[in-house]
Amino acid sequence: MKPITLKQIAEQLNISVTTVSKALKDYPDVSKKTKAMVKELAKTLNYRPNTFAVNLRTKESKTIGLIIPVIVHHFFANVIKGIVAQAEKKGYLVIILQSNESYELEKKQIDLLMSQRVDGILISLANGSARFDHLNEVINQGKPLVMFDKIAKIVNCSKVIIDDRKAAYTATQYLIDIGCKRIAHFRGPLLPQNSIDRFLGYKKALTDNGLPYDPSLVYICECGDMSFEEGKMNAKKLLEDHDDVDGIFINTDLVAIGALNEFNNQGIKIPEDISIVGFSNWFMSSVISPTLTTIDQPGYLMGKTAFKQLFKEIKAHKKNKSIIPKIITLETVLVKRESTKKSTNTILEI
Length: 350
Known about the structure:
It is built from twelve helices and twelve strands. With about 350 residues, the protein is α/β, with parallel strands linked by helices.
């Protein structure tokens, strides 16, 4: 069955197409009686507005693109929830694409979204993204672009981030405050900015407290997916290489949980032998044994904030106003649990 048109409704009621259109949009110059008749018939005939035609007239698609490295990830799942919740309030559809940490796939997805004429794009970069011509092209074409979490500082667009360096410093400082002297770091790949900043925060906390920085205590999750298996693997390496480590700051909770599992299997007591601090505050962090001390990263809030900023820029673009990029930094907190020794200094306990 073909879709019902405004013309068919107009013909049945013997009124103009313009009147039908105005009635459905509640224009004040159409009587209440006419509005009621039009809406009743539209409901009976199961009329649906032709959004494609509307979008052509308004030059809006009412869709945005969202590119994330992985979907099956606690943090990004919360980001998606925040974005979708805000998008629905504004009547926007979100096209969600997963780059699988691939630069080449990310480029193709940008091209796809541009060909679909989305009104704007939200992106968290793939670990493999080292060049940004595809993102600069989005900006050059006047399309609003907002980056979040994994960003490129040299791309001139708005960004929603946390202070990764400060958060990592806080995590490492806490390990020092509870008495740890030999602190290792399981870091992410060399490329993403947040991985770099977390490493730099770890290193600065050591040097600020007079503890030597030992590069042999830094283990890179080289696969790029920051997995449970990499946590187990790096924990095993650590035990083979060093018998004096008493604290570890780990780049993300899933890796930390893998490390904790390996330590448990090898009879290493947590936190008596080694204290562990993770990053992200996954749900699993609060239910494993021992529960994981971690940095709480506000994924849902980051998603909400990223969409709100993109929406502002979409409106500005529609009015031909210039877009001034903003850097929005969200706060993080340290959540103390059982994987670290007790301290007299209270930060936050959950």
